Amino acid sequence: IGPGSVTLSASGSTGNYNWYDAATGGNYLGNGSPFNTPDITTTTDFYVAAAPVQYSLDFDGVDDYVDLGNPAELQITGDMTIEMWLKPTDFSARRNPYAKAYGGEGTITQETNGTLSYYYGTSGGNSSPYQGFGSQVSLTINEWNHIAIVRDLTNGMLYWYINGIQTASTAASYPAAAKGGNPVYIGQGYVSNYTGQIGEVRVWKTARTAAEIQNNQISCCDCINNSNLVGYWDFNDGPGSATLSDLTTNGLDGTLTNMDTANDWLTDAPGHSCESCESPRVAVTATVSAGSAVNLGSDASLVCSGSVTLDAGAGYSSYLWQDGSTSQTLTVNSGGVYWVEVQDGAGCADQDTIVFIDAGSAGTALDFDGVDDYVNIGNPAELQITGDLTIEMWLKPTDFSARRNPYAKAYGGEGTITQETDGTVTFYYGTSGGNASPYQGFSSGTALNLNEWNHIAIVRDLTNGQLYWYINGELTNTAAATYATAQYGGNSVYIGQGYVSNYAGQIDEVRIWNTTRTLTQIRNNLGKRLIGTEAGLVAYYRMDDASGTTLTDATLNSLNGTLTNMDPATDWVTATAPIGDLTASLFTTSWGGQSINMTPCGRDDATVSSVAGAPTGVLLYYVGTVPNDVTGINGLGNNDRYFGVWKFNDNTATYTFVYNYTNNPHIDFSDEANLVLYSRADNAATPWTDSGATQDLVAHTFTATAQSTEFIIGSNGLPLPVTLVSFTASAQRDHVYLQWQTASEINNDYFELQRATDPEQFTSIAKISGAGTSTTPSQYDYQDFTAPNGLLYYRLKQTDFDGTTSYSNIVAVQYNGNNRTYLQVYPNPARLNQAVLSGYNFSPETTVTVALFGSGGHLTTAKEVMTDRNGSFTLQLTDMAALQAGLYILRANDKGRVATTKLIIK
After folding, report:
1. Looking at residue 306, what is its pLDDT?
2. pLDDT bracket for residue 286 (50, 70, 90)
3. Helices of type H across 69-149
4. What's the domain range around 163?
5. Helix/strand number for the chain, H first, E second
6. Residue 18 per-residue DSSP state
């Protein structure tokens, strides 16, 4: 029914099994038995060969290490490459998987954020002068990672590769390293011992290329006689051996120190293809039978008010949804990722996934002062884009007195945008990797509108050797690309700052793609709020954080930025760029007889026509939530949608706006004559005012002539019916979080929150006071810390002052109560002054009080520590007190939730 994996098995060997896609050569796919194939759609042959058992070494992070001594072959002062396979199990402290001398021949340090740093220098030992160089990208904890550091002193560069991908590069500070007397260690160095597994280490006295690293990282090294390979430890000595053998002719064997030779050799090792030492390959056929595919519809849809029913289709023998339910249909009340897995009578399985997007309210933008305000994104590998590229953003410039950078990476590297003093924008990219020549500059040719919002998009199509500028949905300039590729470098990505002056004005909706966007794609999406999962979208900043110093990336890459020199209280401003959940647009030079129409969710219908003037385009947008400000609107009730119209490049143009509300579920047609169409200029304008639109009670429409305006329906008579705008439940680390919102309330006394494990038997767990009578939106939430494990159902019982009750829709959530707050001490028992406390599943970015009690129950000391965004923290206990030998109790308190553990000091 679609792509899927087949489980294959092999037997008869006492060793390992390696799997390939060809009888000889081909691609190595993995190892083990059983083996899950890659996704296939037709019957496919795979090939398996018996191979020797592969081992790794397990390091305890306390005193385990391998001593290689100080042979002359490892006193490398010039070009060098170190490759290793690492499986880290702990990021609580800085640790050394490989060390010689950080001020000498070189040392690798694993940092507490999971990244790696490489150090080398000219002192010859563990002292300055030295250079540190970070990988930028973190390792994956509890998984195998291939790492490679390349020191190319011939060309004065350093490179990091993680899992075959170059993640960072920088200029080398010194033309040569200084040799010294320090031994070479695997699993130990100048900071903490390594915690985790290490499998296969290669040391070269040459700078390996990206292709050499990528092509050989999962292959056994058939290059033992290569004179540039000075050390090669494959970690296959196995249990009982206290020696780590070097397979090169140099014979640089290492000695396991403080290690258990019976238990520290593990068969959990990174899989390798090694055709020269395998049995002949045997063909295994993975058979695929035909079936019928499941399709939930469009891969991404907007959650309209009310609920949506997903139907997987009839005729399957079984259904399994992501919440554990097994029916043919699933009712969706809120945004999220939903999937279903089906199986037919022949045993064929298929899965489909759909993303539902909650409607977004009018958010915020960032205001830059043109002096020192900027956002620092850092230098993540995802933004070191050297090929096809598209950058989109909304700009509202307030000053053309100086050249300014709304976006910058490197004008001689991956790319920078500069706003010129004539209001045009220029894109630069080049092959130096930094802010230096050679580079190409490419102008938009058309100036931005001062003190107005402008959408800009630069497209670098290196596949076809072209550059394109688009301003406000129009192609304004094209040019041939001078360079076939850009050079990545070590510069950070900045929004609002670059190599010239800081930006002056507002910025909103920044989108960075590693693909080329077409004119149609740009026009169809420039005013539409994206999901964040679109193909090729590597970073997406909605600018809707509204507070704090973090600019959130809405993609899965999480390339968050940090506001620098900015005031969160004043620099987050109400967004007035025309951004909606759904849009329709038209770009033309001849408006006679033209119109734009949209019917979001198949309900309200809006049409723009009779455009008079000379706009280059008109955008009609829809927002499916209550406005950010409802001042001036009478009788809004639960009406939770509005429309907006935006004209490009002609503020004085007029148009006719027709709003058909026939299918609006919140309209009380018995009081239709009292409906009013309200309008405002934009999200920052207040109050809403009566638009003076003409109402047609037969056609159920309002008709208004207006300029750039937003429209919403209220009532001068009866308030529109009161129902919930939203009600959601989400599983957190140690509780279920409930949220609901009302648009307005009449005589609402209180809510009862009810919970059930059987949707037929609800029990009240909390009582929350209502807002009485209110014409403004109200937000409510509740944290259910007593929730049991399993599939849970929640609903709201609403009670008026006169005792009248009503019930909300039911929401379901799968809750895993194992995610409780807990503490872990390592090592435990600990040597004096070596204990580290780690806390998990606490509230994110909050203060936790850690108290230390002696065996008699007396408080020794207490300390406050901040958790990270994942709710974790690490504390060196020697920071709290000089601990003597004995038994201690550690207690962490997070807003009344307490976790305890014992600590033994030897």
Report:
1. 57
2. confident
3. none
4. 56-270
5. 3, 70
6. E
Question: Do 99 and 234 lie in a common domain?
Answer: yes
- Contact status, residue 823 vs residue 802, Cβ threshold 8 Å: no
Q: Both 468 and 612 in a single domain? A: no
pLDDT, mean of residues 75-80: 97
293 located within any domain? no
Helix, coil or strand: residue 213: helix
Q: Give the number of domains in the chain.
A: 7
pLDDT digits (tens, 9 = 90+) for 454-504: 999 999 999 999 999 999 999 999 999 999 999 998 899 999 999 999 999
- Nearest to residue 239, comparing CAs of 88, 57, 62, 87? 57
Between 829 and 428, the higher pLDDT residue: 428
Nearest to 575 by CA among 481, 710, 742, 753: 710
CA distances from residue 441 to 330, 377, 418, 478, 520 in whole angstroms, order as listed = 53, 23, 10, 12, 25
Tokens 């099994």 — which residue? 17
Same domain, 458 and 525: yes
Is residue 1 a part of any domain in this protein? Answer: no
30 and 142 co-located in one domain: no
Query: Is 84 part of a structural domain of the chain?
Result: yes
| Domain termination residue (choose one: 514, 541, 574) | 574
Q: Are residues 419 and 566 in the same domain?
A: yes
Q: What is the mean pLDDT of residues 539-552?
A: 94
Question: Among candidates 730, 734, 791, which has minimal Cα distance to 758?
Answer: 791
Kindly report, residue by residue over 556-606, the tens digit of the pLDDT.
788 999 999 999 999 999 999 999 999 999 999 999 999 999 998 878 999
Of 557, 574, 591, at which residue does a domain stop? 574
837 contacts 881 by C-beta, under 8 angstroms: no
Q: Decide if 766 is inside a domain.
A: yes
Least reliable range by pLDDT among 1-15, 593-607, 608-622: 1-15
Are 255 and 332 within one domain?
no
In the structure encoding, which two tokens stand for residue 375, read together? 């956002």
Cβ atoms 518, 398 nearer than 8 A? no
Distance (Å, whole) CA 739 – CA 95: 42
Q: Are residues 809 and 901 in the same domain?
A: no
Q: Are residues 350 and 461 in the same domain?
A: no
Among 16, 84, 35, 45, which Cα is nearest to 277's?
Answer: 16
Q: How far apart are CA 48 and CA 31, in angstroms?
A: 9
Distance CA 475, CA 450 (A): 19
